[in-house]
């Protein structure tokens, strides 16, 4: 149970962290896309604001759980970091497959050879997931290496 709360806290923080980086870097600084690109720039900016709010709710939710774990002296960093990498990777893979390709809310970048960006985006997501699973496995008391 304790490892589970550590993992969930990290998972929420990881989702919020990668969503924040995505929104700040690709939406605001590079201007590659908005969260919703099928309408006006104004609506795209509103969708970015909602996405930004979501990322902070996830981040703060994860940090509240972390504070409670630390208060109870039940914080285990390896499990928490495993959750961070899992949350970040799963969110990025969801974004790259569901939001980019299935729902077509936006693309990573609007260029002719977007598949290169897609491949990098999704491979990085899978690597984050694998690293997160590895850390969670290491943190589990029932698993022996």
The total strand number stands at: 0
- Could you give a short account of the major beta sheet? none
Q: Structural class of the secondary elements?
A: mainly alpha
Helicity, as a percent range? over 70%
Order of helices and strands: HHHH
Helix run count: 4
- Radius of gyration (Å): 17 Å
> What proportion strand?
under 5%
Could you explain how this protein is built, in words?
The structure is a single chain. The protein has 145 residues and is mainly α. It has one domain. It is built from four helices and no strands. The chain has helices at 2-29, 41-71, 77-102, 114-139. The radius of gyration is 17 Å and the shape is flat.
What are the main properties of this structure?
mainly alpha; 4 helices
Question: Can you describe this structure in just a few lines?
Answer:
Helix 1 (2-29) runs antiparallel to helix 2 (41-71), helix 1 packs across helix 3 and helix 3 (77-102) packs antiparallel against helix 4. With 145 residues, the protein is mainly α.
List the helices and strands and how they pair.
Blueprint (H helix, E strand, L loop, with lengths): L1 H28 L11 H31 L5 H26 L11 H26 L6
Helix pairs in contact: 1-2, 1-3, 3-4
């Amino acid at each position: 149970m304790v490892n589970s709360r550590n993992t969930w806290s990290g998972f929420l923080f990881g989702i919020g962290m990668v969503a924040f980086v995505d929104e700040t870097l690709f939406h605001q600084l590079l201007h590659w896309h908005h969260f919703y690109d099928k309408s006006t720039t104004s609506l795209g900016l509103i969708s970015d604001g909602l996405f930004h709010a979501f990322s902070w709710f996830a981040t703060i939710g994860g940090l509240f759980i972390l504070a409670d774990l630390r208060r109870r002296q039940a914080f285990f960093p390896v499990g928490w970091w495993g959750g961070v990498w899992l949350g970040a990777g799963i969110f990025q893979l969801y974004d790259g497959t569901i939001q980019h390709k299935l729902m077509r809310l936006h693309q990573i970048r609007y260029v002719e050879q977007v598949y290169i960006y897609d491949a990098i985006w999704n491979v990085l997501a899978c690597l984050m997931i694998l690293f997160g699973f590895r850390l969670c496995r290491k943190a589990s008391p029932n698993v022996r290496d």
